[in-house]
Amino acid sequence: MRQLRVKSTLCQVQNGITSTCQHDYNFHNENKYSYKPGWKNSIIKNYSSSITQSFQYSTNEDLNKYIYVGEHGRYSGNGYVYEFRSRSVDPQTFTSIIQLICIIILYFIWIEIRSVLKLKWKYFQQFWSYIEIGIIYCSWISIGIYIRRYNKCKRIGKLFNKTNGYVYINFQLTSYINDILILLLSFSCFFGTIKLLKLCRFNQRLCLFIQTLQYAGKELLSLSIVFISFLSLFYLLFISELDSCSSLFKTAQILFEIILMQYDAH
């Protein structure tokens, strides 16, 4: 567990009352001092080395951590670390289906290569060709990221098994890799959904909907620019004030509710 602390300063004296002021966390008011157990400068009682070490300030180079972007701000990779220790390790088994996925992707690549040889430059003039390329591109990168995540998890598992949890293990990079993998899989699903729409073009209502979007394309683009402007404004103004604006997704949801007059300000 890693903790970040802010500096404590004395407030201005009002009516003879003095108290301690603590401001919101940022890189400038981060507390970088090392303490004794209990956040004191000196101790009488002796503590174990793990507890004593948890009150020592560590830098991101020592912890091998990175800056973390949260919902209400950015947090450095420094801090005070307490190591939870355990003597039991649950075995984990990693199952890989990479070979099957590679075969499927190679099959799609072969189909697209045949299409390129047949259509030549006309292939790159079709909208659906870029959808196929997007699926193949995201799939190959996802495989590489998956292998990277598998190796990281395997290394962490070996390290934990070797030390029984008696060392600090950084999961931040593994978490970032997992987020990238989820993002790539999301793009693959997005392109796959668009490809599914191609198979549904025989539906007259769907064709009418697509034609409507094409007819109103310029107006929708203008509306999107205005909406993104308001989205950025609300997000930057209320990111630290309202939980409902703590992320771009939540802010967009609030704006849609305001447009539909469904937002409850109370």
From TrEMBL:
Domain Polycystin: 1-87
Membrane topology: Multi-pass membrane protein
InterPro entries reported in the protein's UniProt record: PKD1_2_channel, Polycystin, Polycystin_dom
GO CC annotations, alphabetized: membrane
Domain annotation Polycystin cation channel PKD1/PKD2: ranges: 97-261
Keywords: Membrane, Transmembrane, Transmembrane helix
One GO process term, biological-process aspect: detection of mechanical stimulus
GO molecular function terms noted in the UniProt entry: calcium channel activity
Coiled coil residues, start to end: none
Keyword hit for Nucleus: no
Subcellular location: Membrane
Pfam families for this protein: PKD_channel (PF08016), Polycystin_dom (PF20519)
Transmembrane parts of this sequence: 93-111, 127-147, 220-240
Main location: membrane
Family: Belongs to the polycystin family.
Name by which UniProt lists this protein: Uncharacterized protein
